[in-house]
Design a protein that fits this description.
The chain has a single domain, classed as Rossmann fold. A hairpin with a 4-residue loop joins β2 and β3. Strands 6-7-5-4-8-9-11-10 form an eight-stranded mixed β-sheet. Strands 1-2-3 form a three-stranded antiparallel β-sheet, with no helix packed on it. The chain is of the alpha/beta class. 26% of the residues lie in helices and 29% in strands. The protein contains six helices and eleven strands. The protein binds S-adenosylmethionine. The site of S-adenosylmethionine (SAM) has 18 residues, from α2 and β5.
Length: 226
């Protein structure tokens, strides 16, 4: 992206970024943290009963979903292997201004910065139970078959009308092939065309209530192995 994203406040008081060249926000302007918690934590992460969970995020961005997952996983002492794909890593000058850690302990603040400061393209131990691999790559050309057995996919790309090349049948087919049996994919997007691509890939798809300001979201499940 040629123009630096701009920090904006959303309705729940948490920050998001606005990308002028796309005329698009990173999160819902109705509440960034509220949206992430609803879609990725409550409707995604919390529905997985495994003790050892592999997560793939499409669009690591501000690291908000990663940070919330890390905090949530600590409550239940789950082991997490988290992979985040991102084509445009944000500069620390932006990360350091985000208010996601404002009400957090100094320990959690350090963890948020560690998520950002750790090296790309290698698996890093953030805490004894949370491992992160940030991959700097373009999802549309990245060889997803190098990743496998994903339990939860957080599909958090920019909207289909802004970035249609991220929402293709080919991508959902590849994501399906690396999802474990019984694994899920969650996204804020509820468009019929997206739902149909997920179904075509093999997922069973549910329309579920969205976060405040958004009627619906999608959760796709790869059926249990027969
Ligand atoms: C809607 S934002 C969400 C970011 C992140 N999940 C967050 O909470 O901040 C979409 C993200 O996808 C990234 N992105 C855009 N094109 C991409 C591509 N071709 N491959 C991988 N990531 C991409 C953007 O840079 C941005 O960080």
């Amino acid at each position: 992206m040629s123009v630096k994203p701009e920090i904006e406040l959303t309705s729940d008081g948490s920050h998001t970024l606005f990308v002028p060249t796309l005329n698009e926000h990173y999160h819902s302007t109705n509440g960034a943290v509220q949206e992430s918690v609803h879609i990725f934590i409550n409707t995604g992460f919390q529905t997985c009963r495994k003790e050892d969970i592999k997560i793939l995020e499409v669009g690591f961005g501000t690291g908000l979903n990663t940070f919330l997952t890390l905090l949530e996983s600590q409550k239940e002492s789950k082991a997490i292997h988290y992979t985040g794909i991102e084509l445009y890593p944000l500069p620390f000058s932006i990360i350091s201004k985000l208010n996601y850690t404002d009400s957090q302990s100094s320990e959690n603040k350090s963890l948020f910065y560690k998520l950002h400061e750790c090296d790309w393209n290698e698996e890093i131990q953030i805490t004894p139970q949370f491992h992160l691999k940030k991959i700097q790559a373009d999802l549309t050309s990245f060889d997803l078959s190098s990743i496998e057995n994903i339990d939860i996919i957080y599909f958090d790309a920019f909207a289909p009308d802004k970035q249609p090349d991220m929402w293709t049948q080919e991508i959902f087919d590849k994501l399906y092939s690396i999802t474990t049996w019984g694994g899920i994919l969650v996204t804020y997007c509820a468009k019929g065309v997206v739902r149909r691509m997920m179904q075509q890939a093999g997922y069973e798809v549910e329309r579920l209530p969205g976060p405040p300001g958004k009627r619906e979201m999608l959760r796709a499940k790869k059926p249990e192995q027969k």
